[in-house]
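User: Hi! I'm working on a homework problem where we have to compare a predicted structure to a textbook description. Could you give me the structure for the chain below?
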Amino acid sequence: MKVRRIFDYLHPYLFGLYPVLFLAAYNKKQLEISYITPYILIIIAAVTVLLVILRFLFKNRRKAAVFLSLFIGVFFSYGHIRFLTKDVRISEAIGPDHLLVPLAFFIIIWGFIYIKRTRRKLEKITQFLNIVSVFLVAYSIGDIGLYKSRNPYRASKTGMATFDTASQTSSVDNYPDIYYIVPDRYSSEQTLRDIYQYDNSEFIKFLRSKGFYVVDNARSNYHKTAMSLASSLNMRHLLYLEDELGKKYEDWYPLYDMIENSEVVRYLKSKGYLYIHMGTWWKPTSKNPYADIDYSITSLSEFGSLFFGTTLLYPLCDKMGISSVFTDPWKIHYQRVLFKFEQLAKIPSLKSPKFVFVHFNFPHPPYLFDKDGNYVPLKEARGRDRYTDQLTFANKKFIELIGSLIKASPTPPIIIIQSDEGPFPVRYAADELKFKWKEAAEEELNEKFGILNAIYLPGNEEHQWYPSVTPVNTFRIIFNRYFNENFELLPDKSFAVSSDEHPYDFIDVTNILVK
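Assistant: Happy to help. Predicted structure tokens:
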């Protein structure tokens, strides 16, 4: 009898878990299973509570379980159906949500009434739902398991090597604070001029007037954030990963591991530096367990936002104008950007020396800021004009920040403002998975690799910067200059990968970018 009861209640749990497992399987190449554990636990708890309530309402365990499975199906399939019908409109003012939300509630209410009134024992439908739910969950778990077995996580063997460093030659108190600020997808001056018809010369003039070395026509070493940060924060190219992991290895987690536990941070902490971290909603920089101070605004993760957007709760919260970390991740993203600027202005007063890593998803889309920093609703936050509006506001904030950091720092700081990649070319943005970088046009490569790269080194008249310098050499030059190291400078090469499906199949595109 007890076994039968268990099977009567089985399918709501499995149907509840399937949406999480489905999204995890779909994003398996850039996702660790630990990311989804909180959502699995929440769903198990929620299904249990709802079953208790529905058991009381229906006075029948099978009816309670069948209705809950119906509710779960409608609740979690809403976002997927909305995506498939996003172009269906009765008029300009009446879109998919106006049609689908009433339909969803009709199905839920009709299902409740029908199941409540039926005299059927629902034994066969229970068996059917159990079979379907077991198949769906087993398929997703099998998909993830097969992928992980073919691509077992392997940390880089050489990526975590410790450099031999010179002995400490000066007092820790005399070391400058180092700010490594990464404005994601901030494009080069040339790309902004040629592709976006945007004149960024005033901002570049400001930087140079403050003593920044601004690299003309700067370019990144890689075209994706994960690769760029893994390279710059470990002061090395990533070609050795191609040998260690293989060109067909698909999992991105070794790159994420290199970002989280980087050579630059380990080196500076060995010199007595405090590590302050400010990340984004993107999991690899959202938090850092090695940071001494981690500034963040709590919100849904990238996976959480994606998952929340598939549910019926999203349009309801949007319609009611409710804004919280669980209902409006974009408003939180907007607030997070401003929060980081506020906190950065306060950091000079903290004990030195300190290394401050700041990853801004800004001017990265969505373009939630207008030129003056006002909030732009998500449905309007698209388009190239919005990108340049957001970049205009970014310039204003960086001008304020630079003045504040230089003025308030007891010892003149090192400030690096260096984007990781340029904006997406139109063809790439349209279909990232099918886009082949081997076939990319020269203009597309220049747009994706063109970046802002500006470095402020106090008291460094005899700097080692040069016109073709790339991010891979940034910290090598700084450590040589300020810590008397003797790191050899690496070739300033740029690499794409054959496709996002194969992140370790590198293609040297330097000759196309440098002419």
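For your comparison, note the following. Strands lie at 178-183, 213-214, 274-278, 293-295, 354-360, 414-418, 453-456, 495-499, 502-508. Residues 402 and 415 are 8 Å apart (CA to CA). Good luck with the assignment!
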